[in-house]
Amino acid sequence: MPTPTAILIVVGSEVLSAKVQDENGPWAARRLRDLGVRLLAIHTVPDRIDEVVEVVDRARRRADWVFTSGGVGPTHDDITVCSVARALGRPLERCEELSAAIQALHRRHNGGAD
To answer: Which of 25, 16, 76 is nearest to 49 (CA)?
Structure first.
């Protein structure tokens, strides 16, 4: 059985401008190695839909697994989810069960605040 492969895509203009240091890439590299997965590349891209779509599309053709990090918060520049959907040719769908579970987890860890 061949060794599984992965590519990590770090999304964030703040990482490229060095305002924020990428800690997820090195962590993921170590974790994947420990799991026996060969990491082929780590790509860091700005918060631009077209660039995320392009790199996700290219990565999914090269690796067994593609992971993303960043760009999934509540601000205008968090475009990872819609970009990945576009790269895969899939519509975005809200899963109410998952949404409720995340909200409950947030309330549990934030004193009941929504």
So the answer is: 76
